[in-house]
Amino acid sequence: MSTPQTDSNAGSRASDPADEDWRRKLTPEQFHVCREKGTERAFTGEYWDCHDDGTYRCRCCGAALFDAATKFDSGTGWPSYFAPLDNHTGTSAVATHEDLSYGMRRVEVTCAACGSHLGHLFPDGPAPTGQRYCINSASLKLERR
Which residues are marked as active site? Predict the structure, then answer.
């Protein structure tokens, strides 16, 4: 398993001319989460209590991000995974960035392929990694097996 890509210079995103395209492709909640770095309310997302087998993909670009076998019940109300998938180049399918918003110091998780906001990474997950990728359902699409 590879280490997620990191960019400590990530900050708030400037207005993107492609925003109108994204607004047409995504629901308002998906746009808010994926393109504006929003967070859905706990226990409300489509996948927080989903136990189906499959691959969780990026809602925006379709990149494979997490295998359902790495999903666990964190009790937080958001889908949680202990490890992301590797992409075809041998690096992580997700990237991480320092997030200093709301007066907190956190680690943001984005899609390594398209930069879509996914959620945050915390060091309180189960073995074997001890990590918890806390991800918004709105940023995911489950491809069931």
Answer: 134
Give one word for 2, left, alpha or beta, with left for phi > 0 and alpha for psi -120 to 50. beta
For the purposes of burial, counting CB atoms within 10 Å of the CB of 104, is it exposed (0-12), middle (13-18) or buried (19 or more)?
exposed
Q: Which residues are paired to 97 by β-bridges?
A: 7, 108
Of 16 and 32, the structure prediction assigns the larger pLDDT to 32
Among 95, 87, 81, 89, residue whose Cα is nearest residue 4: 95
Residues 79, 49: Cα–Cα separation, whole Å: 7
What is the model's pLDDT at position 9?
38
Mean pLDDT of 59-70: 97
User: pLDDT of 109-133, one tens digit each?
Assistant: 999 999 999 999 999 999 999 999 9
Domain ranges of the chain: 15-144
- Whether CATH 3.30.420.40 fits 15-144: no
